[in-house]
Amino acid sequence: MEKEKIKELITAHTRTFLARKGLVRREVQNEISRLLPQREIVLISGVRRSGKSSLMRLICDDIIKKGSVPASNILYVNFEDERFVDFTIRDFESLYEAFLDLQRPKGKKFLFFDEIQNIAGWERWLNRLYEFEDLKIFVSGSNAAMLSSDISTALTGRNRQVVNWPFSLREFISLKGFPLRKKDLYSREKRLETKHLFRQYLETGGFPEVIRNNDPTLLEQYFKDILYRDIINRHSIKNVKEIRELTLFLAANLGTVQSYKNLQHLAGLKSIATVKNYVETLADVFLFYFIDMFSFSVKRQIYNPSKVYCVDTALSEAISFRFSQNLGHTYENIVCIELLRRKGEIYYWKSKKGKEVDFIVKEGRKITQAIQVCVSIVDKKVMEREIYALMEAQNELKPESLTILTDDEEDSFKGENAVIKIVPLWKWLLQF
After folding, report:
1. How far apart are the C-alpha atoms of 414 and 280, rounded to whole Å?
2. In 90-168, which ranges are continuous DSSP H helix?
3. What's the rounded Cα separation, in Å, for the pair 325 and 313?
4. How far apart are CA 342 and CA 28, in angstroms?
5. How far apart (Å, rounded) are the C-alpha atoms in residues 404 and 328?
6. Where do the DSSP E strands lie in 87-234?
7. Reduced to 3 states, what is the DSSP secondary structure of residue 381?
């Protein structure tokens, strides 16, 4: 690219970036703030439209305020801009020189590169920059390939990885301008308002612009962007109909156990190898997550089918062919994503008698939680089923806590060797 064109683009991008105001603080910033004094490159990944650009602006704000860094030391570039279509790895040096020429930064420099995975070989240039310049680098991408072994090898010891999720319920409530503290839940009025906001969260999901505009119809366009731009175009997939139908099937069957063979049959695909490739691609763009069954036998764990979940429940609702909402699976999906957001190593589990526990949380060698998700346990048979499965998990896995998450029921049940807590899902999501 011509150097003058590069100067024009980085000037426009950085000016627009620094002008952004009114953003809601993200919870992941607490994790990132601990990385700011360190030299390592920060890789921010996550699904498209989850607010990675806004997160970079919030990080920049923290840097400017806490470190008294002048705006002249900030560079921001978004490689999604189609004007970078001719940009290659050879142009990175010109870009950096253009920044130095325009801004004349003094001292430590802070570089923000959005959707950098669009430029092949980017990690090699950053690796060299890291070695010879006094700077801190933040990069984002909507594809797990940017965290692949090849890139990790190129940046060995030089990067820290962070996942940016769609908004949690806590962030959703904050964006809605409803500050909430634990003691507020003792107020009937605030408790009712919190429940009302939870219902809204179920409908709109956690994508920032959908929440701001209260417009779930945006989700269909997000799906098309992810499918066509991040999957079909990037991976040169020829049979669009196949992967589209597989995606829609998965979206309509959240929380269900799906083997490759079953997916091959239901989606009408030619081979299990094709199914496996499609599933890995859908996971690579953070659209779906596939949770394995827990077993102390690694072989048994590998050969059992996985459960499928979507990164955003409202997105799955917007694109699936379901005629009515399965609230149980909706709640289960929300719990899965929240556990992943909390950095849990999660599984589902089946006892030898066939009793299933929705989520087992493992930390190191310890099983810390066993969680069941159920809309209501008013029905005695339902309550007995959920409790019995948890007690079997307690006997075999010895988790530190047992929980049943419901729509709005709260209680506790004392079993033979443990106490089972019954907690409303909305309250569990708030982590009070």
Report:
1. 42
2. 92-103, 122-132, 149-154
3. 11
4. 10
5. 12
6. 109-114, 135-141, 159-163
7. helix
**What are 329's two structure tokens?**
């699976």
100 phi, psi to nearest 5 deg? -65, -40
| C-alpha R_g of the chain | 23
**Dist CA 22 CA 234 (whole Å):** 33
| Cα(268)–Cα(244) distance, integer angstroms | 12
Decide if 250 contacts 280 (C-beta within 8 A): no
The set of residues, in sequence order, having a beta carbon less than 8 Å from that of 303 and lying 6+ positions away, is none
Q: Which two tokens stand for residue 315?
A: 């997105």
Backbone angles phi, psi at 189, to 5 degrees: -65, -45
Q: Is the dihedral of CA 144, 227, 92, 112 positive or negative?
A: negative
**Rounded CA separation 192/260 (Å):** 43
pTM above threshold 0.90: yes
The one-letter amino acid at 264: Q
Distance CA 78, CA 116 (A): 8
- 405: nearest Cα among 380, 377, 431, 430: 377
The count of other CB atoms within 10 Å of the CB of residue 194 is 20
Burial 230-244 (b: 16+ CB within 10 A, else e): bbbebbebeeeebbb
Please check whether residue 125 is in contact with residue 139, taking contact to mean a CB–CB distance below 8 angstroms.
no
Alpha-carbon distance of 167 to 186, in angstroms, equals: 25
H or E segment at 363? strand 356-363
Q: What's the rounded Cα separation, in Å, for the pair 73 and 107? A: 8
- For the sheet with 288-291, list strands across it: 257-258, 306-310, 288-291
Of 89, 106, 133, 99, nearest to 6 by C-alpha is 99
Q: What gap in Å lies between CA 394 and CA 40, rounded to an integer?
A: 42
Helices (H), 285-432: 298-303, 313-319, 327-341, 380-397, 425-430
Can you tell me the distance from the alpha carbon of 392 to that of 191, in angstroms, rounded to the nearest whole number?
Answer: 34
pLDDT along the chain (432 residues), means of 10: 95 97 94 94 94 97 90 96 95 97 96 93 91 94 68 78 95 91 88 95 96 95 95 90 94 94 87 94 95 86 89 95 79 98 95 94 95 96 95 95 96 88 97 76
